[in-house]
Design brief:
- It is found in: Cell membrane; Membrane.
- Belongs to the cation transport ATPase (P-type) (TC 3.A.3) family. Type IIB subfamily.
- InterPro entries: ATP_Ca_trans_C, ATPase_P-typ_cation-transptr_C, ATPase_P-typ_cation-transptr_N, ATPase_P-typ_cyto_dom_N, ATPase_P-typ_P_site, ATPase_P-typ_TM_dom_sf, ATPase_P-typ_transduc_dom_A_sf, ATPase_P-type_domA.
- Keywords: ATP-binding, Calcium, Calcium transport, Calmodulin-binding, Cell membrane, Ion transport, Magnesium, Membrane, Metal-binding, Nucleotide-binding, Phosphoprotein, Translocase, Transmembrane, Transmembrane helix, Transport.
- The chain is an alpha+beta fold.
- Helices cover 51% and strands 13% of the residues.
- It is built from 41 helices and 26 strands.
- The strands form 4 sheets. Strands 10, 11, 14, 15, 16, 17, 18, 19 and 20 form a 9-stranded mixed β-sheet that branches. An 8-stranded mixed β-sheet has the order 8-26-25-24-9-21-23-22, sandwiched between helices. Strands 1, 2, 3, 4, 5, 6 and 7 form a 7-stranded antiparallel β-sheet that branches.
- The longest helix has 43 residues.
- It is elongated.
Length: 1157
């Protein structure tokens, strides 16, 4: 069902049921298009306040919907479901059509068709001896009629290649869509139904629901803000405005789907879902305009790839409908090529050029040789009746030339990369890594630094209060409630129960004897647990003062580092409860409750003593210290609540607690593995420096006696700025980061600065590749900036997930180590495949070329070459790309960005095996008939039957490739190539399967494969020569690589190409080196890599699929795929700085959007 059908159906339903509710779908839609005071006035005039609108929609602002099935169904029928129909996936036929666009295949098809056409054409001069060698030799009538077989066989093998490619793409797309729907089902949102707060899947939300929104949420539907505190929304995804918008019931109550909650909490009345929400409307437009867009896009792309990128996001009152589209387009370009892609593109360009040159020379030499031999040496005339015969020869030469090109172009590369990545992604799911951007997988293998959060990643995120300082006494364990003054106890319980999110609760354990379940903010759970440990209960307090009665809330954010709640007392006065980081809150305290529960003066001197005697010892035990305080205000005059500095001062301290968050048991081992693998782990946390240091020692990030730095955010900022403290200087960062291990009390901006500083550093010879973990909304900028961003699947906010590349579904640091292992494995798999493929390429091209030049006929026929191409491309990429990773991968240092794809050892293997294979093939070609006592296959005339001689050469060639495939499993010069071979069943199946098919081709292939059946002893020789590959591999391994200085490495990224794109001045004309090469007409072979485009498209599905952009957003970002793919080849540099930044750091950030291959 298309979007427009969906839409019109809704319209009809609406007409039928308009009377049921007090407002129609159309009215609500037009209401949601208003902003600010306009909206407030409209709601007042039409419905009389938001309560009126709730009545019209038959819902209660406090109790929510009743939640009966019939009512929910009716609402879905009238107002639509919270779901946007996704774009239809490509059909198998479309994928086949795309695979057919491959240029080399097109050339082969044309050659095959010409060959077919000519074979059916009976020239009149058939019997004419005057046509030279044309009809001589062992040709009889029956054989002449078989001329069509070669053309047909080429076509058949082209069909095979196309079907294999299309099937690969189709199954991949299916897999990714499955993954996508799985993620959709997992995304839940909190609503109130029947007075109960419950979590439901986003797709179940209906108009009239009362949804609870809180810090870090991504809004799943449009709605009206009905009650809450301090709500600030980032609407940049709709409007392009980077400033956060403050929402309030009386000034701007409009909340839009797809926008992010940056601060505060509250409730909203859902007024539009699915295709009727603001995001939905945009996608409906996109869906309708998709086809025309595609056509327009193609035209625009040809005229100029740059202009499309310069489009500015619309900042219209309608919510910027064009914006999403543009944003998606520009996102596609901004991503730097991943390291591996850059290296592969460069290598493929070089190989493709060489292949093109070789094939052209082959054709020219063949044609010249034939012409000179026929017309000069034998002095024949060019007779008109002989023309078809000569043309047939030329076609044969052309086919041989194309065959050389086909073998030279490594079109298996994109396939190998895709298979390897897709396989890894699937397996990484089992290791709790949900990969959102495919290239993150491979980048992770090169990681040299990990900047990790502390809470929840290194620790269990199960907070418990273990020490407390109450009434002038420091208790090392939970105090007995009787030892605390009653007044203090009551204040403490109220302060904790009221001044924490009401969504935070402690529920009974799921299993008998288990630990109580902590729901919501974990620090607050720790405090509530403290209340329960003191044999008190927080529920009655909350029931007495429900959330609606809270007078004012200053929610927690990374700047305040504290949270405060104001309530109105029965006598009209106000009381404010505060809690937060102890050193910050204590600075604002001027009194403290003593042993009798009475306030006494608390001077700076007392504070310093308390820090020394209480807070530092707690922190050194690795505890997080929280101070709980309160303040009373008189009712007249009412304080100016917006003047935060005055309000949050002159507090009275109730108590200081030390909260323990134990280190996860598996973390120290995981960190040890990282350090052994050459990866530096740094801890970046908002906690106190002593706490951070204690935890870092427990984790093994720092070892006593080492030379390392632990800094606080303030000190870090002072050291990296110039004397005036304004500009951040790279050389100052370079002095700090190599030794920095712990950054405490850090703000999100500090985290971003550190990550950027390490990435941009040129101090060490290999550029650093940085992974970052984060869970909070404020980690967005750093996650975007990092080479690989990890978000927490359980504790992470939607904003963090949105900015990340990989989501850790178990929030566990040890899963990152698994990601490193998989990443290195991808890199190695591709190197293995390259080592194998390049050996085949070199040998096949040289054999075809020299054979053609010396004997006028390639010893390997076009169809045979295609079969070799199939085994060495498709099958070998499957076999070598699915090797499982081993722990041994973690014993070496990271490769880094500048390491070439083909190392010296690999080059030694490639050339060494090529020498062996060429020697044997040429021996067989020129003296093989004597060795085996058979007829020579050289200089056979056109259409002659296949000879045993050439069949032996073909068979030996394939056998050598098969055994060399086993050699290719090791790329670091290891001797035991069979190590772990049975752990990879796919590899064994493919090698045995290829062998079986080869027997069938040789024995029964006959004319189409130009094969003649072989005797058993001939077969034994072929296999024996193949086995020699394994022995020869051992000989090569003995030669020390260090002696072979003359071997060049290949596939290296030079410094210039390697510089991050943002710095190559934001100039749209700047094209990286590899692309400039392509523009010069090499597009021919490059499109031969055109499969890559199909893969990009599938991967895009995955990219948009796995993005946690609310069900709506996610479903339909697929619609922008078509445009994305056409754009992918034109480079450009767009900097999206409004994506996720807080007002303080807008100017400092320039995000690369993360897109994928």
């Amino acid at each position: 069902m298309t979007n427009s059908d969906f839409y019109s159906k809704n319209q009809r339903n609406e007409a039928n049921h308009a009377g049921e509710f007090g407002c129609t779908l159309q009215e609500l839609r037009s209401l949601m298009e208003l902003r600010g005071t306009e909206a407030v006035v409209k709601i007042k005039e039409t419905y009389g306040e938001t309560e009126g609108l709730c009545r019209h929609l038959k819902t209660s602002p406090t109790e929510g919907l009743a939640g009966t099935a019939a009512d929910l169904e009716k609402r879905k029928l009238i107002f639509g479901k919270n779901f946007i129909p996704p774009k239809k996936p490509k059909t198998f036929l479309q994928l086949v059509w795309e695979a057919l666009q491959d240029v080399t295949l097109i050339i082969l098809e044309i050659a095959a068709i010409i060959s077919l056409g000519l074979s059916f054409y009976q020239p009149p001069g058939e019997g004419n001896e005057g046509c030279g060698t044309a009809t001589g030799g062992a040709e009889d009538e029956g054989e002449a009629e078989a001329g069509w077989i070669e053309g047909a066989a080429i076509l058949l093998s082209v069909i095979c290649v196309v079907l294999v490619t299309a099937f690969n793409d189709w199954s991949k797309e299916k897999q990714f869509r499955g993954l996508q729907s799985r993620i959709e089902q997992e995304q839940k949102f909190t609503v109130v139904r029947g007075g109960q707060v419950i979590q439901i899947p986003v797709a179940e939300i209906v108009v009239g629901d009362i949804a609870q929104v809180k810090y870090g949420d991504l809004l799943p539907a449009d709605g009206i803000f009905i009650q809450g505190n301090d709500l600030k929304i980032d609407e940049s995804s709709l409007t392009g405005e980077s400033d956060q918008v403050r929402k309030s019931v009386d000034k701007d109550p409009m909340l839009l789907s797809g926008t992010h909650v940056m601060e505060g909490s509250g409730r909203m009345l859902v007024t539009a879902v699915g295709v009727n929400s603001q995001t939905g409307i945009i996608f409906t437009l996109l869906g309708a305009g998709g086809e025309e867009e595609e056509k327009k896009d193609k035209k625009a792309k040809q005229q100029d790839g740059a202009a499309a990128m310069e489009m500015q996001p619309l900042k219209s009152a309608e919510g910027g409908e064009g914006d999403d589209k543009d944003k998606k387009k520009s996102n596609m370009h901004k991503k730097e090529k991943s390291v591996l892609q850059g290296k592969l593109t460069k290598l493929a360009v070089q190989i493709g050029k060489a292949g093109l040159v070789m094939s052209a020379i082959t054709v020219i030499i063949l044609v010249l040789y034939f012409a000179i031999d026929t017309f000069v040496v034998n002095k024949k005339q060019w007779l008109p009746e002989c023309t078809p015969v000569y043309v047939q020869y030329f076609v044969k030469f052309f086919i041989i030339g194309v065959t050389v090109l086909v073998v030279a172009v490594p079109e298996g590369l994109p396939l190998a990369v895709t298979i390897s990545l897709a396989y890894s992604v699937k397996k990484m799911m089992r290791d709790n890594n949900l990969v959102r951007h495919l290239d993150a997988c491979e980048t992770m293998g090169n990681a040299t630094a990990i900047c990790s959060d502390k809470t929840g990643t290194l620790t269990t995120n199960r907070m418990t209060v273990v020490q407390a300082y109450v009434g002038d006494v420091h208790y090392k364990e939970i105090p007995d409630p009787d030892s605390i003054p009653a007044k203090t106890l009551e204040l403490l319980v109220n302060a904790i129960a009221i001044n924490s999110a009401y969504t935070t609760k402690i529920l009974p354990p799921e299993k008998e004897g288990g630990l109580p379940r902590q729901v919501g903010n974990k620090t607050e759970c720790g405090l509530l647990g403290f209340v329960l440990d003191l044999k008190q209960d927080y529920e009655p307090v909350r029931n007495l003062i429900p959330e609606e009665k809270l007078y004012k809330v200053y929610t927690f954010n990374s700047v305040r580092k504290s949270m405060s709640t104001v309530i109105k007392m029965p006598d009209g006065s106000f009381r404010m409860y505060s809690k937060g980081a102890s050193e910050i809150v204590l600075k604002k305290c001027s009194r403290i409750l003593n042993a009798a529960g009475e306030p006494r003066i608390f001077r700076p001197r007392d504070r310093d003593e308390m820090v020394k005697k209480v807070i530092e010892p707690m922190a050194c035990d690795g505890l997080r210290t929280i101070c709980v305080a309160f303040r009373d205000f008189s009712s007249s005059p009412e304080p100016d609540w917006d003047n935060e500095n005055d309000i949050l001062s002159d507090l009275t301290c109730i108590c200081v607690v030390g909260i323990e968050d134990p280190v996860r048991p598996e973390v120290p081992e995981a960190i040890r593995k990282c350090q052994r693998a050459g990866i530096t782990v740094r801890m970046v946390t908002g906690d106190n420096i002593n706490t951070a240091r204690a935890i870092a020692i427990k984790c093994g990030i720092i070892h006593p006696g080492e030379d390392f730095l632990c800094l606080e955010g303030k000190e870090f900022n002072r050291r990296i700025r110039n004397e005036k403290g304004e500009v951040i200087e790279q050389e100052r960062i370079d002095k700090i980061w190599p030794k920095l291990r712990v950054l405490a009390r850090s703000s999100p901006t500090d985290k971003h600065t550190l990550v950027k500083g390490i990435i941009d550093s040129t101090q060490v010879e290999q550029r650093q590749v940085v992974a970052v973990t984060g869970d909070g909304t404020n980690d967005g900028p750093a996650l975007k900036k990092a080479d690989v961003g990890f978000a927490m699947g359980i504790a992470g906010t939607d904003v963090a997930k949105e900015a990340s590349d990989i989501i850790l579904t178990d929030d566990n640091f040890s899963s990152i180590v698994k990601a490193v292992m998989w990443g290195r494995n991808v890199y190695d798999s591709i190197s293995k495949f390259l080592q194998f493929q390049l050996t085949v390429n070199i040998v096949a091209v040289i054999v075809a070329f020299t054979g053609a030049c010396i004997t006028q006929d390639s010893p390997l026929k076009a169809v045979q070459m295609l079969w070799v191409n199939l085994i060495m491309d498709t099958f070998a990429s499957l076999a070598l790309a699915t090797e499982p990773p081993t722990e041994a991968l973690l014993l070496r240092k990271p490769y880094g960005r500048n390491k070439p794809l083909i190392s010296r050892t690999m080059m030694k293997n490639i050339l060494g095996h090529a020498v062996y294979q060429l020697t044997l093939i040429f021996t067989l070609l020129f003296v093989g008939e004597k060795m085996f006592k058979i007829d020579s296959g050289r200089n056979a005339p056109l259409h002659s039957p296949p000879s045993e001689h050439y069949t032996i050469i073909f068979n030996t060639f394939v056998m050598m490739q098969l055994f060399n495939e086993i050699n290719a499993r090791k790329i670091h010069g290891e001797r035991n190539v069979f190590d772990g071979i049975f752990r990879n069943p796919i590899f064994c199946t493919i090698v045995l399967g290829t062998f079986a098919i080869q027997i069938v081709i040789v024995q029964f292939g006959g004319k189409p494969f130009s094969c003649s059946p072989l005797q058993l002893d001939q077969w034994m020789w072929c296999v024996f020569i193949g086995l020699g590959e394994l022995v020869w591999g051992q000989v090569i391994a003995t030669i020390p690589t260090s002696r072979l200085k003359f071997l060049k490495e290949a596939g290296r990224l030079t410094e210039k190409e390697e510089a991050p794109e943002e710095e190559l001045n934001e100039d749209v004309e700047e094209i990286d080196h590899a692309e400039r090469e392509l523009r010069r007409g090499q597009i021919l072979w490059f499109r031969g890599l055109n499969r890559i485009q199909t893969q990009i498209e599938v991967v895009n599905t995955f990219k948009s699929g796995t993005s946690f952009q609310g069900a709506l957003r996610r479903q339909s970002s697929v619609t922008s795929q078509t445009q994305d793919v056409t754009n992918i080849s034109s480079p450009s540099h767009v900097s999206l700085s409004n994506a996720l930044s807080s007002p303080t750091s807008t100017s400092a950030l320039s995000f690369r959007s993360k897109q994928s291959i």
